Amino acid sequence: MDGGSRHSDSHHTTSAHSRPVEQEDAHPIALKRRRVAEFGGRRGSGAFVLCNLAPLLLLLSALLAPARGQNVTVNTLCNFDFDCNVFGHKCLASIAPYKYISSTQRVCRCPAENYAGGDCNTTTCIGGVTSPCNNHGECRYLDGSCNCDTGWIGTGCTAQCPTAGGLVCSNFGTCVLSGPSSAVCQCQNGRKGPACEIECVGGMNNPCAGHGVCQDDGTCVCDGSYRGQDCSMACPGLMGFADRITCSSHGTCTLSAECECDSNWRGAACNLECPTLDGVACAARGVCNTRGNCTCFTGMRGVSCEKECAGGSQNPCNGHGECLADASCSCQH
Question: What is the pTM of this model?
Fold first, then answer.
């Protein structure tokens, strides 16, 4: 029976060492070893990842770990299936907390936001220990540069962007530095205001109808030949070589895009000249109508009313005939 017992014990011992790895790994105290493909910047170095450490071992590893910031290789990628810690002064959780990459990958990080660099000790973030990234950004742990919060820009996140409704540049512009600690919005076409919060008259697709300049308050200053709040109304006028000649240069265009003509000009575009005598329209003996013709007073004839009928303007043809266009009389019989 002793032999049987020894055989049984031997068989039991052999079976324990020959169990599949999956069964051994299932033991709560067991240490799972997984080889890291790239560890400390060297491929195939033979380092091991310790997974599912018992609380006692975790405490022991933390106590034995080197001081913070020493022998920590940043950006060491650890591939594993469970929550693992890399032992041997590399990526130890008590020294360099992991950054979650995926369900099977994490990467070493420095212990505090104001530390950076390959050993978490040689580089401090912009703004220093007390105010890293001006407290408006996250320190990039590899080089100590700042990844600014939304609405802040600058090397050290010192410039605040203009906002409206909680949106940087109202989502209609780009925030750019205007000084070491100041920022402005470069607005898209058709937007104005410090935070691009004002839409120009005519809208973003056609501000000022393409015939004016949008002002800071969103109103339009129209080009010379256009009127209206959105500069969409063209003033009458003759077309020149490059543009319309407003009111043919013989009048003034009103806010309603109508021409008020000079004294000797008529027509919607002030392009009809009244007949004159010595520079006086209709020789002051008639009225120039909208067609640019003279309507002469009684007893006056001629294109510019320059002819007086026989008998004079008070009694043409002595009241006994008709004054013709040439100012002659056709007498009654």
Answer: 0.54
